[in-house]
Description:
Blueprint: H1 9-22, E1 28-30, E2 39-43, E3 51-56, E4 64-70, E5 82-89, H2 92-103
Amino acid sequence: MSNALSKAKLVVDLLDALRSRLGSDAFQVVDHWPDDPMAIGIASPHDAGVLAYISVTPEAADPYFVSLEFPPDGEWAEFPYTPGDERNECGIDELVSTIAAHLKKAPTDTSQERKRDS
Length: 118
């Protein structure tokens, strides 16, 4: 991640935890929010349109907000993404589980791989 130094330590630590639990090739980091030190995107390595936006608010009871996104489709075809579920997670275990389940929804046909524009 080229903007690693611009992210809060909590976000950098979160990325390390995700790599440790899911594997370093299980996702790609997509940072559409370079000016927000508490936000990051985690996308499928097969289709960067399958993305989990994560925002961390350490003082909150549920410190991890996650918005699950899909590639533009249907009524959302003219938008950057199709919205999915949004939720607040109270801990890293729940967050990892949510992200892992979401990334599995990406197609695994590598001939169709898409990289998201940064």
